[in-house]
Amino acid sequence: MTTAGKVIKCKAAVLWEINQPLSIEEIEVAAPKANEVRIKIAATGICRSDDHVISGTLTYKLPVILGHEAAGIVESIGEGVTSVKPGDKVIPLFNPQCKKCNVCKHPNGNLCTSNDLTCNTGTLKDGTSRFTCRGKTIHHFLGISTFSEYTVVDEVSVVKIDSSSPLEKVCLVGCGFSTGYGSAVKVAKVTPGSTCVVFGLGGVGLSTIIGCKSAGASRIIGVDINKDKFAKAKEVGATECISPLDYKKPIQDVLVEMTNDGIDFSFEVIGNLETMTAALLSCNKAFGVCVIVGVPPNVSNLSINPMLLLTGRTWKGAIFGGFKSKDEVPKLVSDILAKKFKLDPLITHASTLDKINEGFDMLRSGKSIRTVLTL
Ligand code: CND
Ligand code: ZN
Questions:
Q1: Ligand 1 centroid from CA 134, angstroms
Q2: If we measure between CA atoms, which residue out of 66, 88, 62 comes closest to residue 77?
Q3: How confident is the model at residue 262 (pLDDT cuts 50, 70, 90)?
Q4: Are 316 and 369 contained in the same domain?
């Protein structure tokens, strides 16, 4: 019996209020309208950005179904959809690529104007939601909401991947891996023989290290206050790891001394204003490049002396590793299938949607890198 065109009842994790556990609910998922795709989610990772919404650090419309790092199979398509069909393996794209807006047409930018990170509508492109629960409308998160057995996305927010892809692994290409890896190879453009420092050794930071290594960096320093993260960082390519808690002086001074004034590329992959400043100060004053990857708390500003930039530093940042998502995600998946990179070290725990709150607890306590939920 086909479900196409019908409302599907299924399980999803709903955030009703900030600082509350997610609630596993039965929800109704409406059929896709024109230019929309309904996906059966197979696997979804838990990323710190989801937690930023739960904690209120990142403001988003509530109630909402979070989740933005996933892979699944197309269940049905709305009128006019041409790039995917039912049965295709796909990755939902939290940063879409419409290929029509000024950013998509520009060779460099990737923040498509239909993204919902900066627009914050909590809906699909037509301004409405496909989710209801207990008679209430539930918002979409970044146009994809993957903590649900079924979700509906705009066609610009989904891309087909190789039919042989293991979905419980390649889901990380939907956020963590691509964001970290791209921050090194695409945003910073790490060069062979260079020295890099990565602040924050979670799933995104470790992926940044993988990117630095594949770009040929000869020295990669990992920085984290949790030393339990060091072994894994070294496994994926860090040449040394340090904790700011072991030093009396500011970590940027330690790094500048350690590298004889010469950090080429620094990355902040935590989302903390203090470490953003430390990352900027630790890169070489004349040629250093500092990339902000971590999502900063809402409504906060950094005050810096412009002299820090006048001397020649470059300070930049990007969403989703600077990748144009529809173009690049299928290629990244193919690279993983060809064993160019291993995602296994990033996936420390496997679980199910019912246990999603335990997965978040493990992320908060630093016990997990990525927990992948299979649905
Ligand atoms: P996760 O929480 O797994 O890792 C953060 C790491 O930072 C942990 O290992 C902490 O121990 C460490 N840490 C915390 N505070 C400090 C400190 N003061 N000094 C040193 N280390 C510290 O997070 P994640 O890897 O999932 O995500 C990292 C950030 O990246 C987070 O802010 C997330 O929201 C952001 C992000 C950005 C993007 C993007 O597109 N730019 C996409 N996804 C996630
Ligand atoms: Zn993420």
A1: 34
A2: 88
A3: confident
A4: no
Q: For residue 365, tell me if it sits in a domain.
A: yes
Which bound ligand lies closest to the C-alpha atom of 346?
1
pLDDT in tens, 99-150: 999 999 999 999 999 999 988 899 999 999 999 999 999 999 999 999 999 9
Whether 237 is in the pocket of ligand 1, judged by its Cβ within 6 Å, is no
Domain with 188 in it: 177-296+306-321
Q: Is residue 235 part of a domain?
A: yes
CATH number at residue 219: 3.40.50.720
98 is annotated as an active-site residue = no
Q: Which of 98, 104, 171, 175 is catalytic?
A: 175
Question: Count of domains in the chain?
Answer: 2
Verify that 317 and 354 share a domain, yes or no: no
Residues flanking ion ligand 2, Cβ below 5 Å: 47, 49, 175
Contacts 24+ apart (CB under 8 A), 231-240: 232/201, 232/206, 232/345, 232/369, 233/198, 233/201, 233/205, 233/206, 233/209, 235/345, 236/206, 236/209, 236/210, 236/345, 236/346, 237/209, 237/210, 237/212, 237/213, 238/198, 238/201, 238/209
Residue 21 counted as domain residue:
no
The answer, yes or no, to whether any atom of ligand 1 lies below 6 A from the CB of 166, is no
Separation of CA 1 and ligand 2 centre (Å) = 35
Q: State pLDDT tens for residues 277-306.
A: 999 999 999 999 999 999 998 878 999 999
pTM, whole model, 2 decimals? 0.97
Q: Is the CB–ligand 1 distance for residue 296 below 6 Å?
A: no
Task: Say how many Å lie between the CA of residue 269 and the centre of ligand 1.
Answer: 5
